[in-house]
Amino acid sequence: MAESEQTTATEEVTAAELAEIITELQKYRDRLVHETTEAIQKARLPKAKAMAQMEPELVKIDAMMQELHDRHAALASN
Predict the structure, then answer these.
(1) Is residue 50 assigned to a domain?
(2) End-to-end CA distance of the chain
(3) Which residues contact 28 (CB under 8 A, 6 or more apart)?
């Protein structure tokens, strides 16, 4: 039952809503990188090590954004 409710909710998302979500997710990603970089500089930590630790989170965000872009393209083509 939960799957059908989730599918229905997903189907009701409009292309405009997806575009807004994509924009907000991109802003979050940019802010995360920027704030982490600033914190690294202030703490005088090795940038490569800190960025390597952050990489899995960035990969997740990028995957979510790609999925949203794909859904947006599918909605736009319909």
Answers:
(1) yes
(2) 27
(3) 61
In tens, the pLDDT along 28-68 reads 999 999 999 999 999 998 989 888 999 999 999 999 999 99
Find the domain containing 65 and state its range: 14-77
What is the Cα–Cα distance from 45 to 51, expressed in whole angstroms? 10
User: Which pTM was predicted?
Assistant: 0.76
Count up the domains in the chain and report the number. 1
**Rg of the chain, C-alpha, whole Å:** 17
**Cα 30 to Cα 44: distance, rounded to the nearest angstrom:** 21
Q: Give the DSSP letter string of 20-58.
A: HHHHHHHHHHHHHHHHHHHHHHHHT--HHHHHHHHHHHH
